[in-house]
From TrEMBL:
InterPro entries: DAP_epimerase_AS, DAP_epimerase_DapF. It comes from Pararcticibacter amylolyticus. Keywords: Amino-acid biosynthesis, Cytoplasm, Isomerase, Lysine biosynthesis. This is Diaminopimelate epimerase. The gene is dapF. The record marks H144, E193 as: Could be important to modulate the pK values of the two catalytic cysteine residues. GO terms for molecular function: diaminopimelate epimerase activity.
Amino acid sequence: MSDISTLHFYKYQGAGNDFILVDNRNMAVNHHNPAFIAALCDRRFGIGGDGMMFLQTKEGYDFEMVYYNSDGNPSSMCGNGGRCIVAFARHLGVIGEETNFLAVDGPHYATISGSGDWVSLQMIDVDEIKNDGDAFVLNTGSPHYVCRTSELASADVFAEGRKIRYNDRYKEKGINVNLVEPEGEGYFVRTYERGVEDETYACGTGVTAVALAMAKQNGQKGEISTPVRVLGGNLNIRFHYDGQRFTNVFLEGPAEFVFEGGIKIPAGS
Ligand SMILES: N[C@@H](CCC[C@H](N)C(=O)O)C(=O)O
């Protein structure tokens, strides 16, 4: 009897934030194993990814999104991951052009374009933005630190992000660190991600946090649409702000299939 089996996986990316996806509707994969997830996300010895997701069935919803960071630990919401799993669900025939699914931060509504590669994902409402010196701290499904800067193209985001993520205030629970500068009608953003412990090419909950924090700082109210450029492409965030609460928050952008394959794993994983 063989002690090795093959895991069929799919790779997707949303503005360069890349993920391994597995159809686990039959619950064949036991994913409560950080070393297993981290090994698959490893860019040299595994498939490679900023995170890994399992699409599972959930009563009352089209599907459930179960998300892990590349360090192998389950995490809070991933916005780009959410957009990618919607594209994956569409590919599997689980959904049509709109969906209601469950993620770790609650229910999400999303739509996907007919061509299947542009996803608009509703994020949680936000009613609190705190200050940490000149920076903003808020939770858009995941915790974010947002700090305005200049000369962002040449910034050492890894070093600056790491310093903040591991300072006394944040080191226990961790935080994602977003550096931002105005660009055209919107912003250029670079993010150091907790759980990847590196800069990623995009962070969906991060650009959402930036758009909300900048609207508050600029005194904007009403229906707002904010384009954001990240290292891996372009995203857009639209929302309503009444001066107290951010509602109807949508993260929009590309979610694209990259490749699929099989990888040998120990049986029972
Ligand atoms: N890439 C994500 C955020 C994933 C979670 C994050 N690393 C954390 O642990 O908070 C996104 O697109 O939102």
